[in-house]
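pls design
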C-alpha cells in the first residue's frame, strides 16, 4: 500500500518564471514582457528578463534534477517564444531550445511534461483582443498541434491550461497580473468561454498531430475544502462548498465553472442561474468541443478551508485557530486539503489525478555552514504528502505529484521576494544551492513515499 509503484515524483516550473532571455532567440513579446515594465505593478520593479537564466543553464539544471532523483519535470512552453506573434511563423530558434531541453531530460531519464499555457499570451494576440477574440480558439489549437507534432515522439504528457482561475481572475477581474485590466463581468465570462473552447481545440489538435498515444490533461487550481469532523453532515457540507459557485464579483475562484464543462460537458446549473445576465451564447457544439475527452486530471493545490454543517443545515466556514500555521506569503498550511481535495475531485470527475503543483514560500537563508535549512518546507511537504498517500490508500487514483517549485523564481507580481524552490537561487550569481528539502525529497522519492 501507499503510492503506486509507478508514481510520478516531479517538480514544476513555468517559462516566464525561470527562462530569462526574454528578448533573445527571436522571441516575440508576451503580455508579461509588457506588463512588468509598467510602473508599480511588480514588487520593486522586478522583471523576468533574466530570472533563473534557465535558457543558458538548462543543462546544469537538468543534471541537478537528476542528482535530486527527480522522475518527472513539468515545465511550460512560452507561446511567444515559439510563435512570436502567436499565430504566424514558427520561430525555429525558440523551438530548438525546447527540443534540446527535452533531449536532456530524456537522457537523464526524467519524464518531460509540457504545459502549453502558463500565462504567456503573445502580445500580438492581445492586441487583437486576446481571449476576447474567438479566433484564439484556432490559434491556440494550431500552437498545440505544432508542439505535439514536434515533441510527442519524446513527450507523453501534455497539459493545456495552467490555472484559468488565475489568468482570467487576476489578469482581467482584479488586474494584479498581466495584462493588469479590470474589465466588465460580461467580458470575463466571454473570455473564459473562449479559454474553455481553446482547451478543447488543443485537445483535438494534440491527438491529431501526435506521433503516438499521449496523455492529455488540464491543470486548474482553487482552494479545496476539508471537513471539521468525520460526521456525515460535515462531509456533505464540505463537498457542497467545494463545488459551489461564488458571487459574480469574484466569480473566477471556483472549481466547477472551470472543470465541469471539461469533465462533464456542462456548466454547473448554479452558475448558469447566478451568472445568467453576463453569459455569452453557449451552444451545444461549444460544449462538445470543450468536453473533448482528456486522459488525466491535473489540479494545483496549495490550501483549503475547513467546513462544518451549521445548525440551520447550511455549511459554515470554521474560523482558523489563533496563530494558525502560515507560509511566508501568508497562505494557510492545511495538509488535509491533499486528502479531501483529490477525493472529492475523483468522486466527481472519475479520472486519474496528478497534483500538478503544491509547495510553499519560505524566508530561506543560506546559513553559515553554506546550507539552507528549510525545515518548514520539509514539514509542510511531509504533512501534505502523507495526506495524499492516505487518499491513494483509500482508492483515489493518484498518479503523480509535482512540487512547486524546482527552484526559486519570479513569483509574478511578487517578483523575487517569495522563494518557493527546493533549490535556492542567488539571483546575482545565478548560483544554485540545494535546500535541505531537496535532499529530503530525494529520499522520499527513493522510498516511494514509504518513509513519510
Ligand atoms: C500558482 C502558479 C505558479 C506559482 C505558484 C506559487 O498559482 O501556477 O506559477 O506562481 O502559484
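designed seq:
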Amino acid at each position: 500500500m501507499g503510492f503506486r509503484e509507478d508514481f510520478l515524483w516531479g517538480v514544476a516550473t513555468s517559462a516566464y518564471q525561470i527562462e530569462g532571455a526574454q528578448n533573445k532567440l527571436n522571441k516575440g513579446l508576451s503580455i508579461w514582457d509588457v506588463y512588468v515594465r509598467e510602473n508599480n505593478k511588480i514588487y520593486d520593479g522586478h522583471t523576468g528578463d533574466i530570472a533563473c537564466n534557465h535558457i543558458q543553464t538548462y543543462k546544469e539544471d537538468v543534471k541537478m534534477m537528476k542528482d535530486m532523483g527527480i522522475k518527472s519535470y513539468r515545465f511550460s512552453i512560452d507561446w511567444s517564444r515559439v510563435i512570436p506573434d502567436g499565430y504566424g511563423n514558427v520561430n525555429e530558434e525558440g523551438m530548438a531550445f525546447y527540443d534540446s531541453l527535452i533531449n536532456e531530460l530524456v537522457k537523464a531519464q526524467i519524464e518531460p511534461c509540457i504545459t502549453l499555457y502558463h500565462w504567456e499570451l503573445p502580445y500580438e494576440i492581445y492586441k487583437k483582443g486576446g481571449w476576447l477574440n474567438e479566433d484564439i480558439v484556432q490559434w491556440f489549437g494550431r500552437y498545440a498541434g505544432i508542439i505535439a507534432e514536434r515533441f510527442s515522439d519524446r513527450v507523453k504528457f501534455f497539459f493545456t491550461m495552467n490555472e484559468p482561475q488565475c489568468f482570467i481572475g487576476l489578469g482581467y477581474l482584479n488586474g494584479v497580473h498581466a495584462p493588469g485590466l479590470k474589465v466588465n463581468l460580461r467580458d470575463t465570462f466571454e473570455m473564459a468561454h473562449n479559454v474553455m473552447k481553446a482547451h478543447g481545440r488543443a485537445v483535438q489538435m494534440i491527438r491529431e498531430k501526435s506521433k503516438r498515444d499521449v496523455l492529455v490533461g488540464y491543470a486548474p487550481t482553487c482552494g479545496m475544502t476539508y471537513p471539521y469532523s468525520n460526521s456525515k453532515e460535515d462531509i456533505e457540507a464540505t463537498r457542497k462548498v467545494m463545488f459551489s459557485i461564488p458571487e459574480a464579483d469574484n466569480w473566477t475562484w471556483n472549481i466547477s465553472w472551470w472543470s465541469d464543462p471539461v469533465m462533464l460537458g456542462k456548466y454547473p446549473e448554479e452558475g448558469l442561474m447566478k451568472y445568467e445576465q453576463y453569459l455569452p451564447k453557449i451552444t451545444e457544439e461549444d460544449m462538445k468541443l470543450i468536453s473533448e475527452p482528456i486522459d488525466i486530471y491535473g489540479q494545483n493545490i496549495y490550501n483549503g478551508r475547513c467546513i462544518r454543517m451549521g445548525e440551520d443545515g447550511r455549511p459554515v466556514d470554521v474560523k482558523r485557530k489563533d496563530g494558525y500555521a502560515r507560509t511566508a506569503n501568508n497562505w494557510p498550511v492545511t495538509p488535509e486539503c491533499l486528502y479531501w481535495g483529490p477525493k472529492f475531485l475523483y468522486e466527481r470527475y472519475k479520472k486519474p489525478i496528478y497534483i500538478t503543483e503544491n509547495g510553499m514560500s519560505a524566508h530561506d537563508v543560506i546559513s553559515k555552514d553554506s546550507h539552507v535549512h528549510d525545515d518548514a518546507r520539509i514539514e509542510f511537504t511531509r504533512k501534505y504528502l502523507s495526506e495524499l498517500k492516505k487518499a491513494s490508500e483509500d482508492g483515489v487514483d493518484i498518479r503523480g505529484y509535482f512540487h512547486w517549485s524546482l527552484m526559486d523564481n519570479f513569483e509574478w507580481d511578487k517578483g523575487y521576494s517569495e522563494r518557493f524552490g527546493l533549490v535556492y537561487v542567488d539571483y546575482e550569481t545565478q548560483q544554485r544551492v540545494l535546500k535541505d528539502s531537496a535532499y529530503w525529497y530525494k529520499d522520499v522519492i527513493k522510498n516511494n513515499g514509504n518513509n513519510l
